[in-house]
Specification:
By secondary structure, the chain is an alpha/beta fold. 33% of the residues lie in helices and 16% in strands. The chain has 12 helices and 15 strands. A 4-stranded antiparallel beta sheet has the order 1-11-14-15, with helices on one face. The chain has a 4-stranded parallel beta sheet with strand order 5-8-9-10. Strands 2-3-4 form a 3-stranded parallel beta sheet. α6 packs parallel to α7 and α7 packs parallel to α9. The longest helix is centred in the middle third of the chain and has 17 residues.
Length: 376
Amino acid sequence: MEFKATSDGIIRLPALADVHVHFREPGYSYKETILSGSGAAAAGGYTAVCTMPNLNPPPDTPEHIRQQLDIIEKDAVIDVRPYATITVGRKGLQTVDVAALKEYCVAFSDDGSGVQNEQMMFEAMKLIAANGCILAAHCEDNSLLRGGYIHDGEYARQHGHKGISSESEWRQIERDLDLAARTGCSYHVCHISTKESVELIRRAKARGVDVTCETGPHYLILSDMELQEDARFKMNPPLRSPEDRSALIEGLLDGTIDMIATDHAPHSVEEKSRGLASSAMGIVGLETAFPLMYTRFVKTGILPIERLVELMSTNPRKRFRLGSAPDDFAEFDLAHSYTVNPEDFLSKGRSTPFEGWELYGRCVRTVYKGKTVFER
């Protein structure tokens, strides 16, 4: 399908979908709510999002996930699909009742932490595969973190910071790809950030493993050499090296990376005001994702707009069975630039490394089920 802008620079595209957002409710509504998060998503051109399970209570039983679904039914302005946890309490010690939860959730994830025990992940994959569901993994080997909080690279060495090794991510991906091959589990890797991760997934796809993966705009646009002594540059996984960034772009171009997800992770101003070492990890991204990708990759000729639609709409909807949503669309202004100002965000979160950037492709209207849910 070909997409063309009108004479005034407005382009109408299929509404976006994000399989990795944090709306913080129930449990942490001071950071974000279903209402504010879904409003921010609509303002970014999204009509479908999948919410991560690091909540209180965690969605590890039908009763717990229903608490979230009740809020969604009452407050969400778009389609919001929750994840259920892989393990009880996200503690990595006991698998949840997958059969009891699968009708309520989009997939299973312990996002926020990796499943440390290999046998536990093997059992979880067998269960999830038997129930025809998807396992979405936050891959992080805690034994390799060593107190780090930014990438273990040049910036950390120059400024005396403790680094997070790339191996903490790719080593667990390597383990999980072997388990996915053995179990036949539909496996999705969250927020990949390293060159080794790209290559491991590329090879796994070539040998027929049922694996997809996502990365975020920030990993494709920034590296650790753009870091500043400011927590709006702090997220997990961290911004990696320029070489990692180049490998991610290569993976985007050759189809190894299937989709763009924001890992929209709002925190309070106070939680993000303690510097790189002590602030909470996470940035917001729903309201800047399309403009960033359009400005840096489409406008510069690296990606055609059709490929960006695949990455931000078609592929996530297909993999996570979100539906094609023929009545959903979003309109973006390609002709006029704007300056990113976090005070304009509908999200409660304000922390973004892209504050002050001049971008093109701002969403001006979003339609969900034939109804306008956002208009600028």
